Amino acid sequence: MRRHLVSGIALATLAFLYLPMLAVAVYSVNQAKYGMVFTGFTLNWYRQLIQNQEILEAARNTLFLALVSTLIATVLGTMLAIALERYPWGKRAQNFFSTVLYLPVVTPDIILAASLVVGFSLLRVVFSGFELGMPAMIIGHVTFQVAFVTLVVQGRMKAFSRDLEEAARDLYASNADVLRRVLLPLLTPGIVAGAMLAFTLSLDDFVISFFTAGPASTTLPLFIYASVRRGVTPEIHALSTLVFLVTVILVLVAERLSRRKSQ
After folding, report:
1. Using CA atoms, how far apart are residues 226 and 20, in angstroms rounded to an integer?
2. HSE on the CB side for 163, CA within 13 Å?
3. Is the pLDDT of residue 211 over 80?
4. Which keywords appear in this protein's UniProt record, sorted alphabetically (predicted)?
5. Range of the domain at 11
């Protein structure tokens, strides 16, 4: 009885999470532009989506923001993970760094976004030419991405011992050789998984992008939000479906890499 109850709760939870997205996907191929009645199958809304210049511009901004911020966050996060795991920090220092590292993960996005706005306001006092826009968005995304990349790479480092590094040093390998030929190859699954996670977080982010965006740096989440306020159209359904599918694919790839990491 308890087993059936748990299974029922699990299925109900999955339905609660994914049925709304399934409904969006269904209406993205509905011939009717307005109303809730399904009148027939069509892909015209996806064709119109591809021809919409505003959406294409928002897609370019989204991909550029995600790629650049992910690249920066992956490099910084990997360096931070190696420093935290391989430098002989004291116990108090380790506890301090661990707490600081988890803060961006547990801090609500709205608090982080408001803090960034205050920081950028102070930055404009020092550099009068600095304005909200793509550079500010990249800084904002890197701020929360670094913590996720670091945690993933740290998990990978904890999964293997230092025996290979010590063996390489016994063979007179320099620190650079150990890093390039031993450590980085072992960390590659974790680095890629962290990068995929960071890319997904940037792709879906709305709050921080909303607070730091400029007039010419609209992303897909911002475009969807502005469009929904004017009324939901099948094009928005199609766009939401595509964004969701890309996110699912990236999450599945990251999950597969994480499983390989733990083996």
Report:
1. 20
2. 3
3. yes
4. Cell membrane, Membrane, Transmembrane, Transmembrane helix, Transport
5. 1-41
